[in-house]
Amino acid sequence: MKKQSNKDLRILLLGLDNAGKTTILKKLASEDINHITPTQGFNIKTVQSSGFRLNVWDIGGQRKIRPYWRNYFENTDVLIYVIDSADRKRFDETGEQLGDLLDEDKLAGIPVLVFANKQDLLSAASASEIAENLNLHKIRDRKWQIQACSATTGEGISVCNKINPVNRILLMSIDWRFTSCCVYGGKNVGQLIIRESMICISEYSYLGLDLIS
Amino acid sequence: MKSIYRWLTGTCELQRICKSCNETGDRTTAVEKSLGTSKTESLRKITTSLGINVNDAVQHIAVVKKINHESSINSEFICSLSKCLVQICTYSQLKDHVETIRSTTYDSNNKQHETMLMKLWDLLCPDNQLEQRISPQWTEIGFQGSNPETDFRGMGLLGLEQLVYFTENYTQVARKILSHSHHPTYGYSMAIVGIHLTNMAYSLLVSNALKPHFYYSNVSATLDEFHKVYCYLIVEFDSFWRSEKPENILIFNEIKEKFRLKTLQKLKTLRVLRSFELM
Asked: Which residues bind GTP (chain A) (predicted)?
């Protein structure tokens, strides 16, 4: 497998069908979201930020396509898991699916960011309700965060928000790279990455995310 | 340049176009280009505005170009200019009409929408009754899950209307394609692919790439004819997909793009999209 450059991050966007993955992808890439169709296969977009290239892979969520998700696990830096917060009937299904993903060897330790999408709908469950439902608090083997959002309005997704999701993803990736490099490549490699990311970290330290420890 | 020609021949560009172009498509294309680049704003507007009365527009052009439209010498020109304008205006109206349908969201509380959806099932699977409205059976005809409602998305009612049009008018072909879509290796989700092809037909229309199809054929740009373009796409895509021998569904976007480019090429060279299967 081609070695990725330190500036290239691989982000995997998964979730059930109709969760809003493609809309989030397009929103992150500042593209029009009016003509979206159900994803057959996958979509990929590259988002540039703070000198990093986030290669975001959005794979179809239809049951038939889910067995192929594993083809995309390799070298993932952050897993983004999208949930339709208004589709309460499928909370069990989406919880099981997420549980299966977290059990995958190839995704071991990889940080997960859960997007509690469709917050614009009246019937949407809150982020904390979803976190409870999915037992996110029981996750011990990786860092995780949950973000309430609405891909259609841009709330929680648009980069102009106070908490920019791209920075959040970036910080989670860098933290993961640092941790895994310290384990596999020694402290020096980890420090190299830290130095590269220094500017970005200081720029966004206001987020108060204590990621580098 | 135009003014030199005008002085030399005593005719305006539109008259020269109508005289020299024998083929309707060439004529309409050239007239549209000429009007679109005119110095007079009211002439440019004819090509872009909606709800234009062709007779009024022709009269207006004649006045601006100082052509006596009542004189018998010019009757041939007036007649062929009218034909061009009809083609240009119908295309704009079609775009508007299609946009209205596309922007209508599928609504399960709307009886008409629901009836249409059930019709699709009955036409495709006459021997297999749908047990209930929310049912995993919908995946058999290629929806993603138990409720097709969420699959129409950005294509709105247009996606459903075209699937129904196709299965209603070419029922046997549609059932054959459904059986192809169940192939163990080259299978795909028929309804979802259908919605993707609605998106393709829609984009071709909006980007004006479909103009040659309507300008060079004898058919006028009606909604019915637009749906026929969709039928063409679904039939041709099905055979293209199998001929590409895809490893699995994951390369769908790649093959769809190849197919789109091939269709664009056809619109450039053959201009009119026709499928033998649908004749």
From this structure: 15-22, 61, 117-120
- Report the b/e string of B234-247 with b at 16+ CB within 10 A: bbbbbebbeeeebe
Strand ranges of the sheet holding A8-15, from the earlier edge strand across to the other edge: A42-49, A52-59, A8-15, A78-84, A112-117, A144-148
pLDDT band of A199, cuts 50, 70, 90: very low
Task: Kindly report the CATH number that applies to the domain delimited by A8-158.
Answer: 3.40.50.300
Tokens read off for B122: 């009955």
A93 touches chain B (CB under 8 A): no
Which are the contacts of A192, defined by CB distance < 8 A and separation ≥ 6? Answer: A6
Average of pLDDT values for B242-250? 94
End-to-end distance of chain B based on CA atoms, in angstroms? 46
Nearest by CB: A40 against B150, B159, B193: B193
| pLDDT confidence of residue A210 | 41
Q: Does B144 touch chain A (CB under 8 A)?
A: yes
Scanning the structure block, which residue is given the tokens 């004529």? Answer: B27
User: Does the structure show a pLDDT above 70 at A39?
Assistant: yes
Q: Which element (helix H / strand E) includes A55?
A: strand A52-59
Residues near A159 by Cβ (< 8 Å), separated by ≥ 6? Answer: A28, A30, A49, A165, A166
For chain A, the distance separating the N- and C-terminal CA atoms, rounded to the nearest angstrom, is 30
Q: A139: closest CA among A184, A84, A98, A87?
A: A98
Q: How many CB atoms lie within 10 A of CB B42?
A: 14
Contact A43 B150 (CB under 8 A): no
- Tell me the C-alpha distance between B28 and B44, whole Å: 14
Instruction: Using alpha carbons, select from B193, B94, B115, B204 the residue that is nearest to residue B161.
Output: B115
Shortest distance between the Cα of A29 and any Cα of chain B, in A, equals 18
Q: How far apart are CA A101 and CA A73, in angstroms?
A: 10
- CA dist., res. B2 & res. A136, Å (int): 73
Q: Per the CB < 8 Å rule, is B251 touching A41?
A: yes
ipTM attached to this prediction: 0.89
Give the tens place of pLDDT for each residue, A115-128.
999 999 999 999 99
H helices present in B21-169, as ranges: 24-36, 41-46, 54-64, 75-102, 111-124, 156-169
Mean pLDDT for the stretch of residues B238-251? 95
* Interface subset of A 7-36, CB within 8 angstroms of B: 17-18, 33-36
CATH 3.40.50.300 residue ranges of chain A are 8-158
Please choose, from the candidates B33, B32, B42, the residue with its C-alpha nearest in 3D space to the C-alpha of residue B83. B32
Place of tokens 């696990």: A73
